[in-house]
């Protein structure tokens, strides 16, 4: 791994920090998603900065950015694109929809009807869009940030498990602290703060980091720990549906990206332990006994993490060095 990958992360952090107060952990998790080729679901109440964060990230990497405001009347063709007849040329031609971008913000995704939600599946999973039998590749890096309001249920369509499984992580921003809120209030009155964002890296830099993330070393002991966690979710009491192999691959890729952000070319068990609740919680389906006990997927994962045998970090680092 080159120093450039870590420098790219640092530059993005610094630039986004000009308009986003606090949220350092959230930004790092977004970078994990971006660098690992995953997609993110931000679940939080309105007004905490989800849209501003997505716009700031897009501006910092100089990528094409589109925002899709999801509503019940939004059709699949509205996001994918449609074929129209050009009277001048006498031919049918395809007009690209907003998904043909690099960073896509799907705002309030749970307000879109299931047909429109499913239109995102192929783009997120395959990096391509098929319309009228023709598949069209999307430009790299392709990164979807979707938001949803967990409080309102009227007029919403809950994301099915197949759609949730396409997201690398489901995370929440939370409210700022007292001092962070003071800073936000003061920045809101400075017009310059809204236009100060500039590209500090290029999309090509991001693609280079994505390629390097795949080369980050993970020794067999750490692999075994990762697989052990996934397999435990399938047999744990109270879990109706455990994590699939897609979840295994997602957690491994996220751990590799986190290692790069932290300046390492090898994965440590702590990387997996830290990311497991964030990557796996939305992939678990609990049975009714857990809901009656008011236990959440995060509670179950904490139990699994405490039960699993963790390889010694020094051994993992030494094995990586060899």
From TrEMBL:
Keyword Nucleotide-binding: yes
UniProt entry keywords in alphabetical sequence: ATP-binding, Nucleotide-binding
Domain AAA+ ATPase: 36-177
Gene Ontology molecular function: any one: ATP hydrolysis activity
Transmembrane segments: none
InterPro entries assigned: AAA+_ATPase, ATPase_AAA-3, CbbQ/NirQ/NorQ/GpvN, ChlI/MoxR_AAA_lid, P-loop_NTPase
Highest taxon listed in the record's lineage: Bacteria
Record flagged with keyword Ligase: no
Protein family per UniProt: Belongs to the MoxR family.
Protein's name according to its UniProt entry: AAA family ATPase
């Amino acid at each position: 791994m080159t120093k450039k990958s870590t420098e790219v992360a640092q530059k993005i952090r610094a630039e986004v920090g000009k308009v986003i107060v606090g949220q350092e952990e959230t930004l790092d998790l977004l970078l994990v998603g971006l660098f690992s080729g995953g997609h993110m679901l931000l679940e939080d109440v309105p007004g905490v900065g989800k849209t501003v964060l997505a716009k700031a990230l897009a501006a910092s990497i100089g990528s094409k950015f589109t925002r899709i405001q999801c509503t019940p009347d939004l059709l699949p063709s509205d996001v994918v694109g449609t074929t129209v007849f050009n009277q001048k040329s006498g031919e049918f031609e395809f007009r690209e929809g907003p998904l043909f971008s690099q960073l896509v913000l799907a705002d309030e995704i749970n307000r879109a009807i299931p047909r429109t939600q499913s239109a995102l599946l192929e783009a997120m999973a395959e990096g391509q869009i098929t319309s009228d039998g023709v598949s069209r590749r999307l430009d790299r890096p392709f990164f979807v940030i979707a938001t949803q309001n967990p409080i309102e249920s009227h007029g919403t369509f809950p994301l099915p498990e197949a759609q949730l499984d396409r997201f690398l992580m489901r995370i929440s921003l939370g409210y700022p602290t007292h001092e962070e809120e003071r800073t936000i209030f003061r920045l809101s009155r400075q017009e310059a703060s809204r236009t100060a964002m500039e590209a500090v890296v290029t999309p090509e830099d991001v693609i280079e980091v994505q390629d390097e993330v795949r080369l980050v070393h993970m020794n067999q002991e750490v692999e075994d720990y990762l697989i052990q966690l996934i397999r435990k979710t399938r047999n744990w009491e109270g879990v109706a549906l455990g994590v699939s192999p897609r979840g295994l691959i997602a957690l491994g890729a996220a751990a590799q990206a986190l290692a790069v952000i932290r300046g390492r070319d090898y994965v440590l068990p702590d990387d997996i332990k830290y990311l497991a609740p964030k990557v796996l919680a939305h992939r678990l389906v609990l049975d009714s006994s857990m809901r009656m006990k008011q236990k959440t997927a995060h509670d179950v994962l904490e139990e699994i993490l405490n039960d699993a045998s963790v390889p010694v970090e020094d051994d993992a680092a030494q094995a990586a060095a060899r």
